[in-house]
From TrEMBL:
Residues 52-117 form the Transposase Tc1-like domain. GO terms for biological process: DNA integration; DNA transposition. It comes from the Eukaryota. Pfam families: HTH_Tnp_Tc3_2. The gene is AVEN_66299_1. Coiled coil: none annotated. It comes from Trichonephila clavipes (Golden silk orbweaver). This is HTH_Tnp_Tc3_2 domain-containing protein. GO terms for molecular function: DNA binding.
Length: 177
């Protein structure tokens, strides 16, 4: 790509690497005629293949397990980022549980009535309505939410990936009155 006249930025965007990495690779190519990593470069592995598999298995068995619990169970002095990296390699991501508000038949009926009462509203009427979402703003590092390890497409697979509310939550408005 560089020999074809592409800019470093364009190459970096195409191969999903930083501009610095592309620049270093190009300089090594110009200097040595190759772009291979030097032997022994990079950090040494702290876990064995068996420990890696154990980390992934724990996330499969209990998707709500925390990185600190996994680290204690594996018994190796590793940082939480290492656990996240091993799980990401196994296509697991840490996600918030899907929150579902169960609608009772009465809630459904009230929502239907609310919609039917406003079915003939025009644009002027709707401009007087304020819609708000249920966004939370967290200024710290911990949002105190349960997180689960899951693969893509597992969003709605119970039992661990769906957290059901059993009561009304502060800040959640229920229409229909």
């Amino acid at each position: 790509m560089k020999t074809a006249g592409w800019s470093t930025r364009r190459v970096a965007g195409q191969v999903h690497r930083s501009e610095c990495a592309v620049r270093n690779c190009w300089e090594q190519w110009a200097r040595e005629g190759n772009h291979a990593r030097k032997t022994g470069s990079g950090a040494t592995r702290k876990t064995t293949g068996r420990e890696d598999r154990r980390i992934v298995r724990q996330a499969l068995v209990d998707p709500t397990v925390t990185r600190s619990t996994i680290r204690a169970d594996v018994g190796v002095a590793i940082v939480p980022q290492t656990i996240s990296r091993h799980l990401a390699e196994a296509i697991h991501k840490s996600k918030r549980t899907f929150r579902a508000l169960p609608l009772t038949p009465e809630d459904r009926q009230l929502r239907l009535q609310w919609c039917q009462a406003r079915s003939m509203w025009n644009v002027t009427d709707w401009q007087k309505v304020v819609f708000s979402d249920e966004s939370r703003f967290v200024l710290g590092t911990d949002d105190n939410r349960v997180r689960v390890w899951r693969r893509p497409g597992e969003r709605y697979n119970p039992p661990h990936t769906v957290l059901r509310h059993t009561a009304r939550t502060a800040g959640v408005m229920v229409w229909g009155v």
